[in-house]
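I'd like us to work through together how a protein chain folds, taking it slowly. To get us started, please write out a protein record for me. Label the sequence line and the structure token line clearly, so we can match residues to local backbone shapes. Once you have written the record down, we can walk along the chain together.
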Amino acid sequence: MRNMLLTIMLLISTGIFLLFWLSPPEVFLEKPVSTKEELPKADSYMLDIKKQDYGKTGAKIHSLEASEARHFRRGNRLELDRPNLITFNLNTTPQPWHMKADKGTILKGGKKAVFKGNVYAWQNIGNKNKNELRTDRLVVFPDKHTAETESLVTITTPRGKTTGVGMQADLKNEQFKLLSKVKGVHRAL
């Protein structure tokens, strides 16, 4: 009886030893519990970027600067910190549109740009005057020279100030269509 009990204890000890010996170490390590969703890792990372795009005739059509940029191959997107986009419209007016924001995302190989947080767009029109646009989120299509938003937008010109919710803008022809809750003040010259 005593030998039988000793044999059983030896077999149990050997089984426990083999269990620990043959198990991978990850089984015994405690996995940290994350309370926030993990962000995807960027494929490339850049600081203080400056990018120029030129048209078929060699004329500058876009200029982009940002303090930081992260490129993600998946989704072909470029995320920017403090972006500054200048889009030149050579056909009609020589004055370009400037756009700044806290954050930006360039999508579809530069065909679409989304600016978020304190978006400020302006165009100098001479005599220290400018057309200005302010909103929280602005979607720009640089090749088409159009912009749109569903947020509250304020447009200020030398002749007045207009606010509204939602906007479609043709920057090339300087036509702005506010979609709802429009209020404005016009100054006579």
